[in-house]
């Protein structure tokens, strides 16, 4: 469906990762939007990664939810919102305010978040609003608050470029924060003596850049940083003056570090010594950390183990140095500021502090205020499951896929009295369980602000009209607030009004001595808000936007930073004979979470088209898992079927699987079905990176690969489908015999009777190949074999919709046309075989040379780490030539 006309170039912000890149959107009025990087944005200076540059391809309206629905039937807003207000009110009247909950998201805009938090904590009077940031940033928040007294990220992006040593702990920056990775790679290229260290159980596209990679044992980070603290003390690298004046807890922290068991890191003494020497060598060291740290049952301790080392050396708050917790979602930071977590109030105020509670209640003129923290995400869904929570409103997140113990979450929602979901699409595992489904405006259609990893607040601006009846999330929340009897408190006409109120409240927080204060904008006009340039907080009469803590002043009662005594703990689940493998999970380069947006851009599906299990060759062999076959993976709580990817990038005894696949995109790819709901005792963040599992061959009688112009409707035991350029692709695994493959294909692809089959079949060998033509054009094809189907997928997908004959069934390009292989450069659609051939034929030796020869890597640059890896793999062969 085409979009109506809309205005010219609009400056906005990317809706994906926490780098927070500035984007310029130019709608052409014909439905297409041209996307480029904003050269004037401080985060990216014009760069975009593969996901950002494909944003224009995700805006089509197919799949969008365009009207409110109750019980699956379209309805009007009045009915839908009155139903929500009445049902929530009825539950609260009968069972009290803690019987309802909101589950929100670090992808909401600050203005949406502000209204949700105000309604729950100040007007419903419960702390039961929590956010998916609980799965993401909670351990960093808790660690910051323990050490600094507030949730403050001290440093800036510039610090990476200024540092002599950058340590990346549990971060796959190359794939997850690609533009920041590119800034780092460029700084290293300009200053080759800069040292990059990666700490991660597996080797990744990021570790390819590193001078030193430490394959830490899962959960071993506290032991490593305790060892560093001991080395700092033993080598006299502490900053004694800074400690004396500005730090509490050094002796206790050091004593605990000395008593800790270094071997829990799984690293050799030589590796640890080398790491400590590089870290200690120069003052300008940045330790960046992400989900390998946060998503752990000792996540908060891991954070504090890192902060301890920076506090002990005074390496904090100055150019080129400091700990840096990088945020995942575009507004993870904003959600923390606005009080989206169940244990916070707005503006970093503390729900457990009576003075803070009174200040917020007075400011809101609220009838009540939550008196204690609400339930944290994992607990919240347990309470839904056992009936303590009877009504829940889920906004901008997909918990049936992304919360641990995901099958239990699905069962909890299926049994809940009243589930409301706001989303841009009804096609999610969570939306399918909603009693009331509310259509939200999406990126490009809504207005507000987000805060990135370096505390930079930027505007997201609308450049397209709201489709159908879609409404902004803040507007639905405010209307429900009004209909629940709080007409005045939720009488907002536009996001600017909400922002001004929020900025004014932050002045109250600043007055109470807190860090987050943007009261300088409390009086901004609508026009100022529209024109707001990216800025870093704080912003009030006296302070603006720099680093924190360089002056040694912290937000604890004593004004000092706190070091904590820490002892390493292994992950909660211990591998056993039944579940011998440690299951690590995370992200791939070109998909965003549950793929509701990125998978609309076909080129983003070409990089990795299926859910997979990365497993070490030794384990694969011992378990009988052949490359490219399928594995059934079981854990104590659930199971999945995944494609086997044999790779020595993971260590023996460990496997890795991506988090992106859902019930919409695969038969059994929801990886959180395997992850138990174990959490960190301080932060409540789940241990998403160290579950346990076993894997065995999934005995497929037949494997299949299919393509079609229409969306396939598979019912095989294993399937995974994705959009391709002019249609769809589907991978299949059948565990029962099929007698008539032509009939099977007709159902799978919902083919019209007029579709003409062209068939080559060898039943004795179990090989069946069939193409379906309409007026001579290829509309579908299905390739079946007893082993994983070996055809060139990129070649076949390129034939969809074109005039074809029986030659299609070869499944490979003719001898005159080489097979491009799986796509590596998504921007220019360049396959791995093309690249390998060019590297060897043209003797290319650098990423730049590849760019000149083929253009690969010259647009967004997200594939550069993989190009570098291809070059490295090719070098020995060429040297031997
Ligand atoms: N392409 C893409 N980019 C994204 C996202 C996306 O969905 N897709 N999501 C965004 C979001 S919300 C987030 S939170 C970020 C996440 O960004 P990252 O945290 O960088 O990504 P992950 O892949 O989740 O995990 C990082 C690494 O932690 C490692 N790890 C596992 N266990 C341990 C351990 O015990 N110790 C250490 N040191 N490392 C360990 C894993 O092997 C993995 O390589 O990415 C953001 N960017
Ligand atoms: N095993 C495992 N699990 C994990 C992780 C992991 O590493 N491993 N990572 C965790 C982390 S760090 C995160 S951040 C979470 C992410 O997990 P989720 O937040 O659950 O994943 P998303 O796919 O981003 O869900 C966003 C939803 O919002 C919808 N949406 C898009 N735009 C709008 C809008 O404007 N308004 C509304 N109302 N809806 C909209 C999308 O269609 C989608 O359904 O997953 C967590 N789960
Ligand atoms: S790095 Fe990529 S995904 Fe992240 S904000 Fe920038 S363009 Fe968006
Ligand atoms: Mo995240």
UniProtKB/TrEMBL annotation:
Species assigned in the record: Pararhodobacter zhoushanensis
Q: Which Pfam families match?
A: Fer2_BFD, Molybdop_Fe4S4, Molybdopterin, Molydop_binding
Ranges annotated as spanning the membrane: none
* Record domain 4Fe-4S Mo/W bis-MGD-type: where: 7-63
Q: Which CDD domains match?
A: MopB_CT_Nitrate-R-NapA-like, MopB_Nitrate-R-NapA-like
Family as reported in the entry's similarity comment: Belongs to the prokaryotic molybdopterin-containing oxidoreductase family. NasA/NapA/NarB subfamily.
Stretches assigned to coiled coil: none
The record's annotation in SMART domains points to: Molybdop_Fe4S4 (SM00926)
What's this protein's name? Molybdopterin-dependent oxidoreductase
Q: Which PANTHER family match?
A: NADPH-FE(3+) OXIDOREDUCTASE SUBUNIT ALPHA (PTHR43105:SF9), RESPIRATORY NITRATE REDUCTASE (PTHR43105)
Co-factor requirement: Mo-bis(molybdopterin guanine dinucleotide); [4Fe-4S] cluster
Q: Give the record's keywords alphabetically.
A: 4Fe-4S, Iron, Iron-sulfur, Metal-binding, Molybdenum, Nitrate assimilation, Oxidoreductase
From what superkingdom does this record's organism come?
A: Bacteria
């Amino acid at each position: 469906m085409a979009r109506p006309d809309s205005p010219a170039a609009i400056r906005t912000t990317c809706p994906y990762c926490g780098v927070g890149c500035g984007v310029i959107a130019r709608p052409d009025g014909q439905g297409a939007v041209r996307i480029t990087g904003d050269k004037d944005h401080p985060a990216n200076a014009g760069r975009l990664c593969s996901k950002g540059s494909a944003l224009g391809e995700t805006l089509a309206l197919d799949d969008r939810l365009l009207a409110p629905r109750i019980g699956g039937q379209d309805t009007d807003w009045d009915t839908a919102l009155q139903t929500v207000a009445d049902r929530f009110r009825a539950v609260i009247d009968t069972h009290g305010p803690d019987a309802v909950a909101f589950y929100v998201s670090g992808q909401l805009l600050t203005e949406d978040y502000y209204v949700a938090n105000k309604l729950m904590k100040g007007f419903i009077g419960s702390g039961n609003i929590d956010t998916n940031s609980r799965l993401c940033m909670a351990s960093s928040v808790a660690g910051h608050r323990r050490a600094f007294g507030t949730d403050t990220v001290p440093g800036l992006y510039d610090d990476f470029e200024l540092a002599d040593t950058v340590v990346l702990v549990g971060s796959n920056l190359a794939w997850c924060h690609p533009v920041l990775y590119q800034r780092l790679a460029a700084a290293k290229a300009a200053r080759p003596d800069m040292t990059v260290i990666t700490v991660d159980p597996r080797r990744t596209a990021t570790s390819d850049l590193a001078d030193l990679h430490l394959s830490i044992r899962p959960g071993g980070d506290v032991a490593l940083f305790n060892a560093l603290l001991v080395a700092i003390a033993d080598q006299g690298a502490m900053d004694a003056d800074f400690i004396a004046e500005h730090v509490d807890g050094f002796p206790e922290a050091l004593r605990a570090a000395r008593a800790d068991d270094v071997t829990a890191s799984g690293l050799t003494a030589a590796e640890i010594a080398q790491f400590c020497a590089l870290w200690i060598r120069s003052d300008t060291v940045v330790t960046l950390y992400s989900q390998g740290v946060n998503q752990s049952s000792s996540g908060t301790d891991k954070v504090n183990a890192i902060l301890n080392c920076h506090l002990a050396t005074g390496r904090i708050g100055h150019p080129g140095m400091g700990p840096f917790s990088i945020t995942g979602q575009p507004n993870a930071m904003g959600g923390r500021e606005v009080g989206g977590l169940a244990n916070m109030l707005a503006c970093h105020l503390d729900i457990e502090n009576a003075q803070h509670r009174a200040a917020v209640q007075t400011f809101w003129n609220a009838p009540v205020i939550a008196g204690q923290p609400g339930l944290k995400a994992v607990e919240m869904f347990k309470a839904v499951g056992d009936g303590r929570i009877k009504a829940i409103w889920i906004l901008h997140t997909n918990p049936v896929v992304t919360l641990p113990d995901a099958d239990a979450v699905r069962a909890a929602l299926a049994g809940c009295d009243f589930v409301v979901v706001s989303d841009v699409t009804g096609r999610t595992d969570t939306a399918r369980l909603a009693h009331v489904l509310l259509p939200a405006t999406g990126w490009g259609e809504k207005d507000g602000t987000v805060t990135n990893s370096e505390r930079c607040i930027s505007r997201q601006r609308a450049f397209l009209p709201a489709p159908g009846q879609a409404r902004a999330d803040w507007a639905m929340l405010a209307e429900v607030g009004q209909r629940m009897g709080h007409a005045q408190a939720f009488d907002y006409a536009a996001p600017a009004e909400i922002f001004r109120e929020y900025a004014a409240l932050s002045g109250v927080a600043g007055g109470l001595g807190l860090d987050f204060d943007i009261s300088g904008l409390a009086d901004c006009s609508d026009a100022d808000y529209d024109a707001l340039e990216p800025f870093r907080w704080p912003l009030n009469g006296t302070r603006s936007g720099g680093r924190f803590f360089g002056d040694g002043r912290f937000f604890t009662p004593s004004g000092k930073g706190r070091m904590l005594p820490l002892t390493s703990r292994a992950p909660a689940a211990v591998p056993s004979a039944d579940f011998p493998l440690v299951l690590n999970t995370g992200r791939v380069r070109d998909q965003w979470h549950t793929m509701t947006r990125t998978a609309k851009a076909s080129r983003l599906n070409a990089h990795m088209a299926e859910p997979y299990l990365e497993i070490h060759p030794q384990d694969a062999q011992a378990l009988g898992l052949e490359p490219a076959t399928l594995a059934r993976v079981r854990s104590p709580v659930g199971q999945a079927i995944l494609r086997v990817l044999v790779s020595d990038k993971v260590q023996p005894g460990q496997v890795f699987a991506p988090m992106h696949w859902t019930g919409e995109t695969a038969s059994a790819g929801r990886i959180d079905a395997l992850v138990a709901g174990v959490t960190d005792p301080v932060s409540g963040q789940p241990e998403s990176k160290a579950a346990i599992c076993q894997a065995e061959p999934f005995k497929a009688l037949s494997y299949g690969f299919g393509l079609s112009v229409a969306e396939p409707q598979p019912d095989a035991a294993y399937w995974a489908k994705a959009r391709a350029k002019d249609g769809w692709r589907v991978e299949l695994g059948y565990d029962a015999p099929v007698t008539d493959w032509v009939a099977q294909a007709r159902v799978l692809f919902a083919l019209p009777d007029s579709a003409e089959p062209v068939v080559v079949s060898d039943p004795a060998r179990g090989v069946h190949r069939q193409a379906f033509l309409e007026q001579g054009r290829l509309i579908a094809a299905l390739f079946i074999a007893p082993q994983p189907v070996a055809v060139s997928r990129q070649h076949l997908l390129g034939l969809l919709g074109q005039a074809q004959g029986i030659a299609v069934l070869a499944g490979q390009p003719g001898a005159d046309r080489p097979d491009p292989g799986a796509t590596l450069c998504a921007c220019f659609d360049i396959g791995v075989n093309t690249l390998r051939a060019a590297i060897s034929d043209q003797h290319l030796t650098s990423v730049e040379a590849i760019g000149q020869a083929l253009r690969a890597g010259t647009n967004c640059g997200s594939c550069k780490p993989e190009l570098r890896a291809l070059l490295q793999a090719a070098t020995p062969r060429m040297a031997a030539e």
